[in-house]
Specification:
The protein is mostly helical. It is built from 20 helices and no strands. The longest helix is centred in the middle third of the chain and has 24 residues.
Protein backbone atom coordinates (compact mmCIF):
# COMPACT_ATOMS: atom_id res chain seq x y z
CA UNK A 1 0.00 0.00 0.00
CA UNK A 2 2.79 2.39 0.88
CA UNK A 3 4.76 1.78 -2.33
CA UNK A 4 1.65 2.31 -4.47
CA UNK A 5 0.81 5.47 -2.54
CA UNK A 6 4.37 6.78 -2.84
CA UNK A 7 4.39 6.04 -6.56
CA UNK A 8 1.45 8.39 -6.98
CA UNK A 9 2.91 11.07 -4.70
CA UNK A 10 -0.05 10.74 -2.29
CA UNK A 11 -0.08 11.44 1.40
CA UNK A 12 -2.05 9.07 3.62
CA UNK A 13 -4.80 11.67 3.71
CA UNK A 14 -4.84 11.71 -0.10
CA UNK A 15 -5.23 7.93 -0.11
CA UNK A 16 -8.17 8.16 2.28
CA UNK A 17 -9.83 10.72 0.00
CA UNK A 18 -9.29 8.41 -2.97
CA UNK A 19 -10.98 5.60 -1.02
CA UNK A 20 -13.97 7.77 -0.28
CA UNK A 21 -14.25 8.81 -3.94
CA UNK A 22 -14.33 5.16 -5.04
CA UNK A 23 -16.73 3.89 -2.39
CA UNK A 24 -20.45 3.46 -2.94
CA UNK A 25 -20.94 2.96 0.82
CA UNK A 26 -21.03 5.37 3.72
CA UNK A 27 -17.58 5.36 5.31
CA UNK A 28 -16.42 6.50 8.77
CA UNK A 29 -14.88 9.93 9.31
CA UNK A 30 -11.57 10.83 7.70
CA UNK A 31 -9.79 10.66 11.05
CA UNK A 32 -11.03 7.09 11.62
CA UNK A 33 -10.07 6.03 8.10
CA UNK A 34 -6.67 7.63 8.55
CA UNK A 35 -6.03 5.66 11.73
CA UNK A 36 -7.10 2.47 9.97
CA UNK A 37 -4.88 3.30 7.01
CA UNK A 38 -1.83 3.71 9.28
CA UNK A 39 -2.48 0.31 10.86
CA UNK A 40 -2.92 -1.34 7.44
CA UNK A 41 0.18 0.29 5.98
CA UNK A 42 2.34 -0.59 8.99
CA UNK A 43 1.24 -4.22 8.79
CA UNK A 44 -0.39 -4.09 12.21
CA UNK A 45 -3.62 -5.36 10.65
CA UNK A 46 -4.96 -6.32 7.22
CA UNK A 47 -7.95 -4.68 5.50
CA UNK A 48 -11.05 -6.83 5.81
CA UNK A 49 -13.34 -7.92 2.97
CA UNK A 50 -15.23 -4.62 3.17
CA UNK A 51 -12.26 -2.29 2.89
CA UNK A 52 -9.99 -4.34 0.59
CA UNK A 53 -12.07 -3.78 -2.60
CA UNK A 54 -12.36 -0.05 -1.86
CA UNK A 55 -8.59 0.30 -1.39
CA UNK A 56 -7.93 -1.65 -4.58
CA UNK A 57 -10.37 0.57 -6.47
CA UNK A 58 -8.64 3.66 -5.11
CA UNK A 59 -5.49 2.44 -6.87
CA UNK A 60 -7.48 1.54 -10.02
CA UNK A 61 -6.89 -2.17 -9.72
CA UNK A 62 -8.75 -5.26 -8.52
CA UNK A 63 -8.84 -6.83 -5.07
CA UNK A 64 -7.12 -10.08 -5.99
CA UNK A 65 -4.24 -8.27 -7.68
CA UNK A 66 -3.69 -5.85 -4.78
CA UNK A 67 -4.32 -8.26 -1.89
CA UNK A 68 -3.27 -11.74 -3.09
CA UNK A 69 -4.14 -14.48 -0.66
CA UNK A 70 -1.38 -16.64 0.76
CA UNK A 71 -3.07 -19.83 -0.43
CA UNK A 72 -5.55 -18.67 -3.04
CA UNK A 73 -8.30 -20.74 -4.48
CA UNK A 74 -7.34 -19.87 -8.04
CA UNK A 75 -10.80 -20.44 -9.48
CA UNK A 76 -12.44 -18.13 -6.93
CA UNK A 77 -9.72 -15.50 -7.32
CA UNK A 78 -9.65 -15.47 -11.09
CA UNK A 79 -13.41 -15.29 -11.39
CA UNK A 80 -13.89 -12.56 -8.81
CA UNK A 81 -11.01 -10.44 -10.08
CA UNK A 82 -12.62 -10.07 -13.49
CA UNK A 83 -15.59 -8.33 -11.94
CA UNK A 84 -17.84 -11.29 -12.81
CA UNK A 85 -20.42 -12.36 -10.26
CA UNK A 86 -18.77 -15.21 -8.40
CA UNK A 87 -22.08 -16.34 -6.94
CA UNK A 88 -23.17 -17.24 -10.45
CA UNK A 89 -20.45 -19.85 -10.48
CA UNK A 90 -20.77 -21.23 -6.94
CA UNK A 91 -22.64 -24.27 -8.15
CA UNK A 92 -20.28 -24.75 -11.06
CA UNK A 93 -17.23 -24.70 -8.81
CA UNK A 94 -18.25 -28.15 -7.61
CA UNK A 95 -18.82 -29.46 -11.11
CA UNK A 96 -16.46 -30.76 -13.74
CA UNK A 97 -16.80 -27.64 -15.91
CA UNK A 98 -15.18 -25.32 -13.35
CA UNK A 99 -12.05 -24.99 -15.46
CA UNK A 100 -14.16 -23.90 -18.40
CA UNK A 101 -15.67 -21.10 -16.31
CA UNK A 102 -12.24 -20.07 -15.06
CA UNK A 103 -10.77 -19.97 -18.55
CA UNK A 104 -13.74 -17.93 -19.74
CA UNK A 105 -13.05 -15.42 -16.97
CA UNK A 106 -9.35 -15.21 -17.84
CA UNK A 107 -10.17 -14.81 -21.52
CA UNK A 108 -12.41 -11.84 -20.70
CA UNK A 109 -9.66 -10.27 -18.60
CA UNK A 110 -6.94 -10.78 -21.21
CA UNK A 111 -9.18 -9.15 -23.82
CA UNK A 112 -9.91 -6.22 -21.51
CA UNK A 113 -6.23 -5.62 -20.81
CA UNK A 114 -5.40 -5.63 -24.53
CA UNK A 115 -8.24 -3.17 -25.16
CA UNK A 116 -6.97 -0.79 -22.47
CA UNK A 117 -3.48 -0.54 -23.99
CA UNK A 118 -4.04 2.62 -26.10
CA UNK A 119 -5.17 4.83 -23.22
CA UNK A 120 -4.53 3.24 -19.80
CA UNK A 121 -1.84 4.54 -17.45
CA UNK A 122 1.16 2.41 -18.48
CA UNK A 123 2.42 1.83 -14.93
CA UNK A 124 -0.98 0.62 -13.74
CA UNK A 125 -1.53 -1.50 -16.86
CA UNK A 126 1.90 -3.06 -16.44
CA UNK A 127 1.23 -3.89 -12.79
CA UNK A 128 -2.12 -5.47 -13.53
CA UNK A 129 -0.85 -7.30 -16.60
CA UNK A 130 2.10 -8.74 -14.69
CA UNK A 131 -0.13 -9.86 -11.82
CA UNK A 132 -2.48 -11.62 -14.22
CA UNK A 133 0.41 -13.22 -16.07
CA UNK A 134 1.58 -14.78 -12.80
CA UNK A 135 -1.90 -16.08 -12.08
CA UNK A 136 -2.45 -17.49 -15.54
CA UNK A 137 0.89 -19.30 -15.69
CA UNK A 138 0.28 -20.66 -12.17
CA UNK A 139 -2.58 -22.69 -13.64
CA UNK A 140 0.00 -24.71 -15.57
CA UNK A 141 1.04 -26.30 -12.26
CA UNK A 142 -2.38 -27.93 -11.93
CA UNK A 143 -3.97 -30.79 -13.82
CA UNK A 144 -5.25 -29.68 -17.21
CA UNK A 145 -6.46 -31.47 -20.28
CA UNK A 146 -4.33 -31.03 -23.39
CA UNK A 147 -6.77 -28.49 -24.84
CA UNK A 148 -6.92 -26.58 -21.56
CA UNK A 149 -3.14 -26.58 -21.32
CA UNK A 150 -2.88 -25.03 -24.78
CA UNK A 151 -5.58 -22.46 -23.93
CA UNK A 152 -3.65 -21.34 -20.84
CA UNK A 153 -0.45 -21.05 -22.88
CA UNK A 154 -2.28 -18.91 -25.46
CA UNK A 155 -3.84 -16.60 -22.86
CA UNK A 156 -0.48 -16.21 -21.12
CA UNK A 157 1.08 -15.46 -24.51
CA UNK A 158 -1.33 -12.59 -25.24
CA UNK A 159 -0.82 -11.04 -21.81
CA UNK A 160 2.97 -11.42 -22.12
CA UNK A 161 2.86 -9.60 -25.47
CA UNK A 162 0.88 -6.80 -23.85
CA UNK A 163 3.30 -6.50 -20.92
CA UNK A 164 6.20 -6.45 -23.39
CA UNK A 165 4.61 -3.57 -25.30
CA UNK A 166 4.12 -1.57 -22.11
CA UNK A 167 7.67 -2.33 -20.95
CA UNK A 168 8.98 -0.85 -24.19
CA UNK A 169 6.66 2.17 -23.98
CA UNK A 170 8.20 2.90 -20.57
CA UNK A 171 11.71 2.71 -22.00
CA UNK A 172 12.55 -0.62 -20.33
CA UNK A 173 14.29 -2.21 -23.32
CA UNK A 174 15.86 -5.17 -21.51
CA UNK A 175 12.63 -6.12 -19.75
CA UNK A 176 10.65 -5.69 -22.97
CA UNK A 177 12.94 -8.03 -24.88
CA UNK A 178 12.83 -10.63 -22.09
CA UNK A 179 9.02 -10.52 -22.03
CA UNK A 180 8.87 -10.70 -25.83
CA UNK A 181 10.99 -13.85 -25.77
CA UNK A 182 8.74 -15.34 -23.10
CA UNK A 183 5.72 -14.66 -25.33
CA UNK A 184 7.52 -16.28 -28.26
CA UNK A 185 8.25 -19.36 -26.15
CA UNK A 186 4.60 -19.59 -25.08
CA UNK A 187 3.46 -19.20 -28.68
CA UNK A 188 5.84 -21.87 -29.89
CA UNK A 189 4.78 -24.33 -27.18
CA UNK A 190 1.12 -23.70 -28.03
CA UNK A 191 1.89 -23.76 -31.78
CA UNK A 192 0.00 -20.49 -32.08
CA UNK A 193 0.99 -18.66 -35.27
CA UNK A 194 -0.43 -15.29 -34.26
CA UNK A 195 1.44 -15.07 -30.98
CA UNK A 196 4.64 -16.16 -32.74
CA UNK A 197 3.98 -13.53 -35.41
CA UNK A 198 3.33 -10.76 -32.89
CA UNK A 199 6.53 -11.58 -31.00
CA UNK A 200 8.36 -11.06 -34.31
CA UNK A 201 6.43 -7.82 -34.87
CA UNK A 202 7.59 -6.57 -31.47
CA UNK A 203 11.16 -7.44 -32.43
CA UNK A 204 10.79 -5.47 -35.68
CA UNK A 205 9.23 -2.53 -33.80
CA UNK A 206 12.07 -2.49 -31.27
CA UNK A 207 14.64 -2.59 -34.09
CA UNK A 208 13.10 0.11 -36.28
CA UNK A 209 12.69 2.60 -33.42
CA UNK A 210 16.34 2.04 -32.49
CA UNK A 211 17.53 2.74 -36.03
CA UNK A 212 18.32 -0.90 -36.85
CA UNK A 213 16.39 -0.88 -40.12
CA UNK A 214 17.96 -3.96 -41.69
CA UNK A 215 17.31 -5.86 -38.47
CA UNK A 216 13.67 -4.79 -38.54
CA UNK A 217 13.28 -5.95 -42.15
CA UNK A 218 14.85 -9.30 -41.31
CA UNK A 219 12.79 -9.85 -38.16
CA UNK A 220 9.51 -9.05 -39.93
CA UNK A 221 10.38 -10.98 -43.08
CA UNK A 222 11.28 -14.15 -41.19
CA UNK A 223 7.78 -14.31 -39.68
CA UNK A 224 5.76 -12.91 -42.58
CA UNK A 225 5.88 -16.13 -44.61
CA UNK A 226 3.74 -17.91 -41.99
CA UNK A 227 1.41 -14.96 -41.31
CA UNK A 228 0.12 -13.85 -44.71
CA UNK A 229 -3.43 -14.90 -43.81
CA UNK A 230 -3.39 -13.26 -40.36
CA UNK A 231 -3.84 -9.71 -39.09
CA UNK A 232 -0.31 -9.65 -37.73
CA UNK A 233 0.91 -10.13 -41.30
CA UNK A 234 -0.37 -6.63 -42.08
CA UNK A 235 1.64 -5.22 -39.20
CA UNK A 236 4.78 -7.14 -40.17
CA UNK A 237 4.57 -5.76 -43.72
CA UNK A 238 4.03 -2.26 -42.33
CA UNK A 239 7.13 -2.48 -40.12
CA UNK A 240 9.13 -3.54 -43.17
CA UNK A 241 7.73 -0.60 -45.13
CA UNK A 242 8.76 1.84 -42.37
CA UNK A 243 12.29 0.44 -42.39
CA UNK A 244 12.58 0.48 -46.21
CA UNK A 245 11.39 4.12 -46.22
CA UNK A 246 14.26 5.13 -43.94
CA UNK A 247 16.80 3.17 -45.93
CA UNK A 248 15.60 5.13 -48.95
CA UNK A 249 14.35 2.21 -51.04
CA UNK A 250 11.05 3.60 -52.32
CA UNK A 251 10.29 0.57 -54.47
CA UNK A 252 10.67 -1.84 -51.55
CA UNK A 253 8.61 0.47 -49.34
CA UNK A 254 5.74 0.54 -51.84
CA UNK A 255 5.96 -3.22 -52.27
CA UNK A 256 5.70 -3.80 -48.51
CA UNK A 257 2.77 -1.40 -48.19
CA UNK A 258 0.97 -3.15 -51.01
CA UNK A 259 1.63 -6.51 -49.36
CA UNK A 260 0.04 -5.17 -46.18
CA UNK A 261 -2.99 -3.91 -48.09
CA UNK A 262 -3.37 -7.25 -49.86
CA UNK A 263 -3.37 -9.16 -46.57
CA UNK A 264 -5.79 -6.63 -45.05
CA UNK A 265 -8.23 -7.03 -47.95
CA UNK A 266 -8.27 -10.79 -47.40
CA UNK A 267 -9.19 -10.56 -43.72
CA UNK A 268 -12.72 -10.68 -42.39
CA UNK A 269 -14.26 -7.86 -40.40
CA UNK A 270 -12.55 -7.64 -36.97
CA UNK A 271 -14.72 -8.50 -33.98
CA UNK A 272 -13.13 -6.07 -31.54
CA UNK A 273 -11.34 -3.07 -33.02
CA UNK A 274 -10.32 -1.85 -29.55
CA UNK A 275 -7.96 -4.79 -29.04
CA UNK A 276 -4.37 -3.66 -29.59
CA UNK A 277 -3.59 -6.92 -31.40
CA UNK A 278 -6.36 -6.49 -33.95
CA UNK A 279 -5.33 -4.83 -37.21
CA UNK A 280 -7.84 -2.75 -39.18
CA UNK A 281 -7.70 -0.15 -41.98
CA UNK A 282 -7.40 2.69 -39.45
CA UNK A 283 -4.21 1.18 -38.06
CA UNK A 284 -2.83 0.69 -41.55
CA UNK A 285 -3.44 4.38 -42.32
CA UNK A 286 -1.17 5.12 -39.37
CA UNK A 287 1.69 3.19 -40.95
CA UNK A 288 1.07 4.57 -44.42
CA UNK A 289 1.25 8.07 -42.90
CA UNK A 290 4.69 7.33 -41.48
CA UNK A 291 6.01 5.99 -44.79
CA UNK A 292 4.65 8.91 -46.83
CA UNK A 293 6.20 11.42 -44.44
CA UNK A 294 9.63 9.79 -44.62
CA UNK A 295 9.42 9.39 -48.40
CA UNK A 296 8.61 13.08 -48.83
CA UNK A 297 5.04 12.59 -50.06
CA UNK A 298 3.77 15.60 -48.14
CA UNK A 299 0.16 15.85 -49.26
CA UNK A 300 -0.66 12.12 -48.75
CA UNK A 301 1.19 12.24 -45.42
CA UNK A 302 -0.89 15.23 -44.33
CA UNK A 303 -4.12 13.55 -45.46
CA UNK A 304 -3.28 10.36 -43.59
CA UNK A 305 -2.33 12.35 -40.47
CA UNK A 306 -5.65 14.19 -40.38
CA UNK A 307 -7.48 10.91 -40.91
CA UNK A 308 -5.56 9.27 -38.08
CA UNK A 309 -6.42 12.14 -35.74
CA UNK A 310 -10.07 11.99 -36.77
CA UNK A 311 -10.45 8.23 -36.30
CA UNK A 312 -8.54 8.34 -32.99
CA UNK A 313 -10.83 11.01 -31.51
CA UNK A 314 -14.30 10.37 -30.12
CA UNK A 315 -17.45 12.30 -31.00
CA UNK A 316 -17.09 14.21 -27.72
CA UNK A 317 -13.59 15.34 -28.61
CA UNK A 318 -11.84 12.91 -26.28
CA UNK A 319 -8.70 11.26 -27.64
CA UNK A 320 -9.14 7.48 -27.67
CA UNK A 321 -5.73 6.64 -29.11
CA UNK A 322 -3.31 9.32 -27.91
CA UNK A 323 -0.12 7.63 -29.14
CA UNK A 324 -1.37 7.60 -32.73
CA UNK A 325 -2.49 11.21 -32.43
CA UNK A 326 0.94 12.32 -31.17
CA UNK A 327 2.71 10.80 -34.18
CA UNK A 328 0.10 12.29 -36.52
CA UNK A 329 0.77 15.73 -35.00
CA UNK A 330 4.50 15.23 -35.61
CA UNK A 331 3.71 14.33 -39.21
CA UNK A 332 1.79 17.59 -39.57
CA UNK A 333 4.79 19.37 -38.03
CA UNK A 334 7.14 17.90 -40.65
CA UNK A 335 4.79 18.85 -43.48
CA UNK A 336 4.56 22.39 -42.07
CA UNK A 337 8.36 22.72 -42.01
CA UNK A 338 8.53 21.63 -45.63
CA UNK A 339 5.81 24.17 -46.43
CA UNK A 340 8.01 26.87 -44.82
CA UNK A 341 5.68 27.41 -41.87
CA UNK A 342 7.92 26.96 -38.84
CA UNK A 343 5.42 28.57 -36.47
CA UNK A 344 2.82 25.90 -37.26
CA UNK A 345 5.46 23.17 -37.21
CA UNK A 346 6.61 24.02 -33.68
CA UNK A 347 3.02 24.32 -32.49
CA UNK A 348 2.10 20.87 -33.84
CA UNK A 349 5.35 19.36 -32.59
CA UNK A 350 5.00 20.64 -29.03
CA UNK A 351 1.35 19.53 -28.91
CA UNK A 352 2.55 16.01 -29.64
CA UNK A 353 4.46 16.02 -26.35
CA UNK A 354 1.39 16.85 -24.26
CA UNK A 355 -0.20 13.39 -24.16
CA UNK A 356 0.09 11.48 -20.90
CA UNK A 357 -0.16 8.08 -22.64
CA UNK A 358 2.92 7.73 -24.78
CA UNK A 359 5.35 5.19 -26.15
CA UNK A 360 8.54 6.99 -25.25
CA UNK A 361 10.94 5.26 -27.70
CA UNK A 362 8.57 5.74 -30.65
CA UNK A 363 7.74 9.32 -29.72
CA UNK A 364 11.39 10.31 -29.27
CA UNK A 365 12.28 8.62 -32.56
CA UNK A 366 9.66 10.48 -34.62
CA UNK A 367 10.21 13.73 -32.69
CA UNK A 368 13.93 13.43 -33.46
CA UNK A 369 13.20 13.06 -37.16
CA UNK A 370 11.02 16.17 -36.93
CA UNK A 371 13.86 18.03 -35.21
CA UNK A 372 16.24 17.17 -38.05
CA UNK A 373 13.80 18.71 -40.56
CA UNK A 374 13.68 21.92 -38.52
CA UNK A 375 17.44 22.09 -38.07
CA UNK A 376 18.02 21.53 -41.78
CA UNK A 377 15.81 24.44 -42.83
CA UNK A 378 15.89 26.74 -39.77
CA UNK A 379 19.12 25.95 -37.89
CA UNK A 380 19.45 29.26 -36.04
CA UNK A 381 15.82 30.17 -35.52
CA UNK A 382 14.83 30.62 -31.84
CA UNK A 383 11.68 28.59 -32.48
CA UNK A 384 13.78 25.63 -33.56
CA UNK A 385 15.79 25.93 -30.36
CA UNK A 386 12.56 26.10 -28.35
CA UNK A 387 11.38 22.84 -29.94
CA UNK A 388 14.75 21.20 -29.24
CA UNK A 389 14.54 22.27 -25.60
CA UNK A 390 11.12 20.64 -25.31
CA UNK A 391 12.48 17.49 -26.94
CA UNK A 392 15.39 17.31 -24.49
CA UNK A 393 12.98 17.71 -21.58
CA UNK A 394 10.85 14.88 -22.97
CA UNK A 395 13.86 12.58 -23.24
CA UNK A 396 14.53 13.07 -19.50
CA UNK A 397 10.96 12.32 -18.37
Amino acid sequence: MRSERDARGWSQADAVRAMRAKSSHNLPTDSTLLRNWRRWESGESRPDDFYAPIIAAAFDTVTAAFFPKARPNRDDELLSSTGMDTLEFIGRLRMSDVSVATLDAIRITAERLCCEYPFADPHELHAEGTAWLRRITALLDGRLTLSQHREVLVLAGWVALLVGCVDYDLGRRTAAEATRRAALSLGQEAEHREIIGWSAELSAWFAVTQGNYRGAIEAAGAALENCRDLGVGVQLAAQQAKAWARIGDREAMDRSLEEGRRILRGLGDPVNLDNHFVVDPEKFDFYAMDCCRVAGDNRPAEEYARRVISTSTGMDGSVRKPMRVSEAQLTLAVVAVRDRDLELAVDEGVRAFDGKRRSLPSLLWIAGETAREMIEQYPCDPRTRAYLDQLRALSHD
